[in-house]
Amino acid sequence: MNRLLLLMTAWLVTAPLAWSAAEGAEAATACLPDGAGRLQMQISGHFDAALDWGNAGTRCAGGPRPDGNALRLMFSRAEDALLVVIAVTGLERGGTGDGLPANLTLVREGRAEFFGTLGADTCLVDVTENAPLAGVPGAYRVSGRGRCLAPIEAVAGTSEIRIAPFEFTGYAEWPERSGAD
Fold it and tell me: Over 90: is that where the pLDDT of 5 sits?
């Protein structure tokens, strides 16, 4: 458990680098250049939140995990001080699928509260779109819906949250492919 907290903290320190790549320093915050970004999620339990984040004001970033076995999609809004990470296992560039195992992490920024599925067997995601974004090389719009089959526990502590079925459209950068396809 302490190792997971350390890894999450290390990731959060580097997360702003991903945000700056997805948006210019002076540009208004927006999830996707085509205006389609969003996250809709109902959270209850240790804290309650009804997220209905549209494109404007939502930060999005994403890409494959370093080991390549999952795609991480990250969503955040400054006024909600909340970071949501959806990691979809087995998703490849341009791929879609139903019932894909997913890891869900929520961070209450400024409160040091982390909630996460420890493994990809608690939530499932149906990815309905994974398409290139026009004019942005290597960038994709990834859309779908998900559901969690059990409560999500606090990484440190005894509290938990529950997530109602959710929907998302986010941003992912896939690394350049090596070799010919």
Answer: no
